[in-house]
Amino acid sequence: MAKIKTITCAFCKGKGKDPFEIMSKEATCQVCGGRGKVAVAKPYVKCAHCQGTGVSPNSRNVCTACGGRGVISVTDGKKVCSECHGSGRAAESDLPCTTCGGRGVV
Ligand SMILES: [Zn+2]
Ligand SMILES: [Zn+2]
Ligand SMILES: [Zn+2]
User: Fold this and answer.
1) Where are the domains of the chain?
2) What are the DSSP calls for 37-91, one per residue?
3) How remote is the CA of residue 79 from the centroid of ligand 3, in Å?
């Protein structure tokens, strides 16, 4: 059985507000719904695509690989992506690895 752990929301850094104030200064964080915390199933690893920030690189969007939580749950069956070796990036580019979708694990 997976264990659920509550962690600080990476996208808003626990503030519960939209970090980019796209809608308004008072807009709630779309990742955690304003709670500042998100629940993830253990075990998990830091998202390789966004480096754990929850923000898609070079954008203001929620990271598509981790959904903005900054971490990705892994199961025992998952292993480091052989294509990107866990970096989550395609070779010689900033694009997410197509094999693992930027997760770094498959
Ligand atoms: Zn949040
Ligand atoms: Zn991510
Ligand atoms: Zn990969």
Assistant:
1) 1-106
2) EEEEEESEEE-TTTTTSSB-TTSSSBPTTTTTSSEEE--TT--B-TTTTTS-B-T
3) 10
Output the CA–CA distances (angstroms, integers) from residue 74 to 2, 37, 65, 89, in the order listed: 10, 19, 13, 18
- pLDDT tens string for the chain (106 positions)? 668 999 999 999 999 999 988 778 889 999 999 999 999 999 898 998 899 999 998 899 999 989 999 998 887 777 889 998 888 888 777 788 999 888 888 8
Global model pTM greater than 0.90: no
The closest ligand to the CA of 78 turns out to be 3
- Å from CA of 71 to ligand 1 middle: 13
The token pair at 14 is 């626990």
